[in-house]
Amino acid sequence: MKRFIKIFCILSLVCLAACSNGSSYNQQECSSLVEKIKSNEELTEKDYDSMIDQFGSIVTWMAGEKKAVGGDEKAFKEALSSEEGKQKAEYMIYFGLQLEKDKDKLSASNVVRLAKYMKEMQEIKK
Questions:
Q1: Which residue range(s) make up the domain with 33?
Q2: In this structure, is residue 115 part of a structural domain?
Q3: What is the pTM of this model?
Q4: Nearest to 99 by CA among 58, 38, 55
Q5: Can you tell me the distance from the alpha carbon of 59 to that of 31, in angstroms, rounded to the nearest whole number?
Q6: Angle, nearest 10°, between helix axes 27-38 and 83-101?
Q7: pLDDT tens, position by position, for the chain (126 residues)?
Q8: Other residues' Cβ atoms within 10 Å of the Cβ of residue 79
Q9: How many domains does the structure of the chain reveal?
């Protein structure tokens, strides 16, 4: 029985890792990407991957904030109006606009990932 529980726990952790986006919000990474966008530097596939990772982590943060306030729209807007919320929204806008502009440069897997996060954004708005 102990062996079964141990195997179950290991499998649960593997599934949890596989289902998460594998990336957490990184303000320094976001800032670096925005600087590349502002300076019109050539963006690489790695840059697009990072942009989508950060976009996704911000969406996840927003969903968490909405859940934390129990769906109270006023409290949710206050959270988004915080310095942290404003900064994340600015990054999200930069990345969203750049990804839309360069959508034909994205790999198929990044198109799918971005669509997933955009769908999650729509759910947050409801």
A1: 24-125
A2: yes
A3: 0.78
A4: 55
A5: 17
A6: 50
A7: 544 344 433 433 333 333 344 479 999 999 999 999 999 999 999 999 999 999 999 999 999 999 999 978 899 999 889 999 999 999 999 999 999 999 999 999 999 999 999 999 999 887
A8: 18
A9: 1
